[in-house]
Every structure is written in structure tokens, then in C-alpha cells.
Amino acid sequence: MIVKMLHLDLVCLASEKTATLEKLRDLGAVHLDLASAQGASVAAAKGEAADAEQAVRLILKARGKSTDFDIHERTVPEVLAIDVDRETLKGAKEELEREIRVYEPYGDFDPALAEKLLGEVDGLRDVAELPEKLPAMRLSKMREKLDRIENRIRIDDDKLAGCDEKAILRKFPAIADRIAFEEAKELVGESGELAYVSGWLPEPARGTFAAAAHEKGWGTLLREPADGEVPPTLVEPPKMFRPMKALFQGLGIAPAYTESDVSVPFMCYFSLFFAMLVGDGAYGAIFLLGTLAMRKKLPKSWFILLTVFSSATVLWGLLSNTWFGAGIPWCADWPTVKWLADPSYHNMMLLCFTIGVSHLMLARIWNGICRAPDSTCIAEFGWAGILLFMYLVTNSIVGIFPGIPQWGFWVLGISVVAVFGFSVKPSELKTRGAELGMLPLNIMSALGDIISYVRLFAVGLASVKVAENFNSMATGLVSSDNALWLNALMCVAMVAILVVGHALNLAMAGLSILVHAVRLNTLEFSNHKGVSWSGYAFNPFKKH
Fold it and tell me: Which residues neighbour 428 within 8 Å (Cβ) at sequence distance 6 or greater?
């Protein structure tokens, strides 16, 4: 569900502004619009974070160039000072190198003696084709100075490489907290002896906040969101599906406050899409083993999600008997394997279209139940009927069904009447009447939405075929006609092809998940459910 939000106005003594913000931060329940805060103190805090990031980048870059260093803990200003000294030396080195290139053709002459001769012999400068200005030192001294500068640059590189970047990284949460606190201070207005700030409070935190307000003597006003106000969205799915919050955060999406929490169908269908798009049980096993190996480093939510997704892929591998693009002989006669291996691919397309129509009809039926007993719920059930008819049309087009059954036309007729008659109320005809004119286009769009689910079959099949081709390339290298030493060499090449080929295919499978599995949930399903993903996530002011 999406947690109910209350708009908060808080008033305190101006002298207690800092203490009030510290208490709010400790509560960790109030959302403040920190992104809108500006000011010198905010800029200074963000500058500190930028300096720390720059210091870490400098250390890691120097680490790749240097091999002789000992780890020492240094502050960010010390790291940046080393870099400034190094850049100054690089500038001096470039200038000296340019000067050496100019005077190198004249050899290692003494500038002082040359100046004396030029003064005594008229026209000597033109004859010798000397520059107007002579160097401050002879060429050998320049080269000695260049060696010293290069040595000092190497010393600075070693110093940077030896800085402990982990010590700096450990300070990042504290720096982020300072930025947030300075931003919160900028949001607090003052009027005489009073200070005030506004934000958003989840309804479940009302009691805890009220106790804190009573203890501190704050003046508070909690109210429902007014027209035009856009509260943040706090999604609280059922416990089993709570890890989906991590996926939403990772994708940077949130439903609008007035929309629905679709975490449950999102996770169920995303797991299925993940399995079908990867299309190979062995790849799923690799994902699963990698997840288990990273258990201590992964956040709990991501560990659960990746375990579910990779386990679903292993299960798909069992049902389709696909392992590294090949099959296990003793699984070949399983009913599911035979059904999915239909050479006409009709069964796989039927499965994809069935998944698609169930996904989209779920959205419409859910809308209808939520809108009941309002008359517009009839239109939503009508859309579910239209989707069912388009499912029949899609299967007929590709030859899975011999034709559209007669009852399908009855479903379409009744559904169109329901949508046309109840989508817009009579009182809304002036403002929303144009929507009825778009009904034919929307019906055709529903056909395209169902067809788009065939990508589950197409991308999964492509992944399997790529794996099969790499297998063929590799196994074709070894032949009984080859000499023993040549076959041994071909075995090494075969292993290399298999490893590189399947690694590439695995990476492409991961990309297809980001593109297709996310799209089917956030576009096709969400359009029918009415979820625009235009909200912004609830982010309480708290310590990290």
C-alpha cells in the first residue's frame, strides 16, 4: 500500500532552531524538501563532499600508476595539496622540456660565455642563428633539473597511491549528514523570536511525533494534503514483497501519491520475465551462486530479490531443459520440455500472449474493484473484456488458433458498450468527451500491448541460439583427423571460446532484463493500471 501522508507545519523558538532540527533528525520520520535548499553553508558542505570525491579519484588513479607505496592515512586537504604540488611540477616539467627542445640543437654551451661573446663580436647572433634570449643554465644542468622534477613527481604519485582511500570513504556518511543538516537549516524560516518549517509526516508516525512535539514544546499543525500539493510516496508492500522497494529505488521510480502500490504483481511478473529473458538454467545457477557468494556484502533486500530471480531462472531451465544452450538427455522427455520445444514455436508464443493478457487484465480488473461501486468500474471491466478479445485476435493472427470463436465477438460487443457508456460520466462530457473519440485507437493499442509480450519468447530464443552457436564453434575445433598436439591446442581454444562466448551472452541477458522486463511492468502494465511513476520517494530527514 501507499502510506497516507500528513502535511506538517512546525513552529519553535528561533533560539532552539538547531536543537529542533537535531531532534527531527533523530526521529527520522519527517520528509523535508532538502533539494530546494540553497545558501553559502549548503554550498560549503557540498564542496567538502566534492573535495572528498576528488581525493578518492586521485588516489585510485595514482594507484594504477605506482607500484612502490605504503598505505598512510591522510586528510582530504593533504591529498589535494599533494595533487596541487604534483600539477605544479608537471607544469614546470613541460616548460623545461620545451626549453630543452629549443636549445638542444646548439649543444651543451655555457650561456654566460655565449652572452659575453655575443657582446664582443658583432653579427655573431645572426651567424649562429641563436634565439633572442639565451637560457638561464646550460643544457646539462637543464637535464639534471628535469630529472629532479620527474623524481619529485614520482614521489608525489607514490604519496597519492599510498593514501588510505577507505579512511576517506568512511567519512562520506557523516559528510552527507552535514549536507542534509545545512540544507534543513536553510529551509527553516524565522519571524522575530519564532522559527518555522514545513514537511510531510507518515500517518503511522503521528503518535511518535506528537510525543516528541509535546516534550520539546513545539507548535504543530497536521492536516490532509491540500489541492495542488504533491506529497512524497512511501510504498509499504506486504512483508514478503518488501524487497521490491530496493528495486524501485535502484530504478529511480516511484508511483504518484494518489496511485497504487503495484509491488506484488511487479515482483511476481518480473521474476517470470527475468527467467524467460535469460532463458537458460545454467545462467540462472551462475546468478544464484554469485548472489550467495556476495551474501555478506549485498543489502538484505537485494540478496532476496536476486535469489528469487535467479532461482526462477533455474526453474525455467528445468522446465525447458536449457543449460548453456544444450539439453540434458534424461530431461528430454519431460512434458514441459516437449511442449516448449514445439518446432513451430506456437506453444511458446501462446505462453507469452497468455502471460501478457493475464498481466494486463489483472490491471483492469484491479481498477474495477477499486472503483466499485462507482459506475466507472464497469468501463474497467469492459477493458478487461476487450483485452480478452485482443488475445484471441493475436493468437489467430499468428496461426495458434484457427479463428476467433463466436463468443469472442459477444465479449467484444458488450465490452465496447461498457467502455463507451461508462468511461466518462454525463457531467464530464464537456471536459473529457474527446476521450470517447480516441476509443478505436485505444482498442488497437491494446492489441499492440499484448503482441509486445512476444519479446519474452524472441529475446529468450535469441539468447539460447547465441549459446548454441558458441557451443558449435567450440566443439567444431576438435577433430579425430587432427594430430594429438593440435587437438590439445584446440581444446584450449575451445575452452576460451566457451568462456568468452557464454560470458558475453550472460551480459547481454542482463541488459535485456533492464530493457524488456522493466518495460513490460512500467509501461504496458502500468498504462493499463493507471500508474504514471511520476511520484517522488519519501526520504525522511535522518542520519545515515
Answer: none
